[in-house]
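Hi all, posting the design record for the shared folder.

TITLE: backbone redesign
STEP: 1 of 1
STRUCTURE INPUT:
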């Protein structure tokens, strides 16, 4: 077919080599265990458990280690002290801590394709692995069936889920991919991954690396037989699949793909021509990532034709995107530098570049803000007034549907591009804080201070659970250390989204004049909520009734004898600020911890890709040194855990810091 011809002629981003441990018999089912061991199945007869040969070739489990040359060394039998009744064991998967194993009982016949059409019968079993490596307490997986097969299990990286294939009757066709999650000591019911992954054909050998799902299919467009695909997820749903190319795939069966991105090492099983036997194991390494950039106008999503893609910091030159704002390049393993994107009349942007930033054939959208359309904003902690770094600001153009994302820097600053006479929807999220959502009409675009300063209330974020988050009141610092409460674009006293909680109702009036209540501003925010033909004037919002009762006592002492407490459900209102005349914000910390990994005089030698596995990487410069840190750590215990991981990975001098008044202070 045309797809197969195109794939066979396309350059591949992976290199594939046959493993030296292959034999003329079937070798299959590799599983990475621990740091450098691989357990696989083999039908060879020269290495079998004593007394296990029945005259009919089956398969045994073997263990091999990655040798100095990167290939698997001479294998030996897995000593698990368990004999499978009624079949063979393999493939297997071990939990990350090595205490549990799930294995497939199979009826594979050496020399016969391991495909559903060959009549394979599979069942899953789970066992505990004792300190000696023996399998004990073996029991069937709870979702086996007598009239269908279940097999090819693989643990998720956290050990809390297992992905597997089954031709149970409730699927989309033949074998489908399912997931079950660990709930206490039991597995949840099978969850079908849906029609993006599964098809009327067969999907087998799932492998989930924490971000992408790899699987084999004989239905999706491929080169022939079973091919390996990669699926990506958005908002908890599988949305796209990508063919893994002509190196990993062939016109014959290719399946059982696994890959350790950190080590740039993986394996695939294939019966392609040129091999030693029926099924062989091939080593996979990533030779390069094809990274495709799409550069767009942040305000309306239109392409930035001829944008400059500058690799100077990476030791290369500068190149130009095409008329559609597109530019593609090959990123070799180990690449770690900053890429600068420029466009005439646009604000330049810098992005960290590494081979891990994209997978095969994916596009990375880079939004450039027009200088004439850029609006600055700032986000702070509602209570302490300390700027918040790492806050994600998502902005969607309500007319075109295009969206962009900005992240606040260490000063809490961010910039977004917006067009005049257009309304934008904002969603602001940050771990440990309540989400903020609001719509913002731009008007004629003359007011560049529409966004102002937004305060985030500490609390639990509701992002990602499918529920529209309740908005909280944005705040904007005023003069003299006071604060004013405003939704961006309205100015002081504009319409505001009031948070849920408790409030003190002061009065019900037909005409609102919040200045009448200025003597209460030290107790909290005075705002009004429309109700029929009147406006209810309230003070709040307080997280607990106890706080509201304390405020009520202060209100009554100032002459508002009829005030009372109400429950605030969250609504639109008009607000005036709480003020603290003559005071300035106290010296406070950010409330977040960081782990300083090291300080570099030449930060280009810092292994950012390695550090990003620990968390969000930020840097601070002082003199001729650049400190590299893992940031946005909510608790001290979490910081200690990350410090321990960093020290184990080679940053022996890592220590915990926090930020106070813009300075890093060592905690421990």
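Okay, here is what came back for every position:
SEQUENCE:
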């Amino acid at each position: 077919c045309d797809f197969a011809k195109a794939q066979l002629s396309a350059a591949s981003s992976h290199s594939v080599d046959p493993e030296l441990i292959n034999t003329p018999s079937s070798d299959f089912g590799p599983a990475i265990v621990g740091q450098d061991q691989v357990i696989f199945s083999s039908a060879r007869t020269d290495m079998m458990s004593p007394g296990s040969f029945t005259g009919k070739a089956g398969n045994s489990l073997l263990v091999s280690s990655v040798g100095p040359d990167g290939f698997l060394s001479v294998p030996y039998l897995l000593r698990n002290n368990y004999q499978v009744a009624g079949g063979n064991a393999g493939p297997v998967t071990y939990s990350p801590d090595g205490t549990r194993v799930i294995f497939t009982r199979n009826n594979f016949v050496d020399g016969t394709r391991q495909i559903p059409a060959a009549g394979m019968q599979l069942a899953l079993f789970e066992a505990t692995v004792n300190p000696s490596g023996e399998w004990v307490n073996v029991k069937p997986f709870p979702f086996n069936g007598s009239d269908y097969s279940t097999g090819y299990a693989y643990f998720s990286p956290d050990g809390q889920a297992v992905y597997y294939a089954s031709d149970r009757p409730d699927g989309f066709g033949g074998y489908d991919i399912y997931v079950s999650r660990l709930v206490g000591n039991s597995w949840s019911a099978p969850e079908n991954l849906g029609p993006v992954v599964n098809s009327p054909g067969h999907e087998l050998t799932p492998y989930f690396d924490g971000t992408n799902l790899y699987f084999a299919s004989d239905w999706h467009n491929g080169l022939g037989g079973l091919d390996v695909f990669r699926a990506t997820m958005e908002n908890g749903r599988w949305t796209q699949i990508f063919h893994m190319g002509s190196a990993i795939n062939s016109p014959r069966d290719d399946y059982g793909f696994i890959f350790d991105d950190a080590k740039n090492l993986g394996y695939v099983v294939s019966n392609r021509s040129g091999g030693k036997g029926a099924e062989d194991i091939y080593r996979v390494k990533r030779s390069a990532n094809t990274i495709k950039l799409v550069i767009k106008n942040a305000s309306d999503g239109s392409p930035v034709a001829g944008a400059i893609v500058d690799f100077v910091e990476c030791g290369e030159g500068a190149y130009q995107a095409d008329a559609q704002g597109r530019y593609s390049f090959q990123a070799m393993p180990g690449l770690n530098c900053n890429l600068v994107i420029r466009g005439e009349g646009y604000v330049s942007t810098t992005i960290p570049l590494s081979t891990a930033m994209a997978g095969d054939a994916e596009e990375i959208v880079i939004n450039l803000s027009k200088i004439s359309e850029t609006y600055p904003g700032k986000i702070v902690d509602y209570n302490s007034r300390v700027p918040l770094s790492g806050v994600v600001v998502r902005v969607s153009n309500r007319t075109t549907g295009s969206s962009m994302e900005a992240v606040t820097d260490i000063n809490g600053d961010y910039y977004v591009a917006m067009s005049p006479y257009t309304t934008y929807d904002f969603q602001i999220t940050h771990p440990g804080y309540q989400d903020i959502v609001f719509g913002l009409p731009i008007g004629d675009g003359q007011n560049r201070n529409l966004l102002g300063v937004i305060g985030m209330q500490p609390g639990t974020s509701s992002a990602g659970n499918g529920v529209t988050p309740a908005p909280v009141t944005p705040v904007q610092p005023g003069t003299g250390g006071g604060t004013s409460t405003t939704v961006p674009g309205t100015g002081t006293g504009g319409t505001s989204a009031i948070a849920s909680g408790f409030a003190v109702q002061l009065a019900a009036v037909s005409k609102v004049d919040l200045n009448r209540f200025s003597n209460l501003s030290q107790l909290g925010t005075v705002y009004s909520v429309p109700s029929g033909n009147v406006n209810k004037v309230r003070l709040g919002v307080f997280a607990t009734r106890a706080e509201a009762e304390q405020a009520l006592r202060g209100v009554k002492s100032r002459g508002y004898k009829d005030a009372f407490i109400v429950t605030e459900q969250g609504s639109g209102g008009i607000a005036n600020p709480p003020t603290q005349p003559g005071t300035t914000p106290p010296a406070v910390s950010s409330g977040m911890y960081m782990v300083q990994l090291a300080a570099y005089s030449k930060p280009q030698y810092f292994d950012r890709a390695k550090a990003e596995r620990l968390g969000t990487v930020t840097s601070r410069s002082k003199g001729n040194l650049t400190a590299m840190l893992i940031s946005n750590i909510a608790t001290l215990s979490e910081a200690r855990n990350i410090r321990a991981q960093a020290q184990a990975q080679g940053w022996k001098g890592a220590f915990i810091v926090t930020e106070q008044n813009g300075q890093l202070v060592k905690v421990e």
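COMMENT: The chain has four domains: 2-287, 288-472, 485-586, 589-666.
Let me know if anyone wants the other runs.
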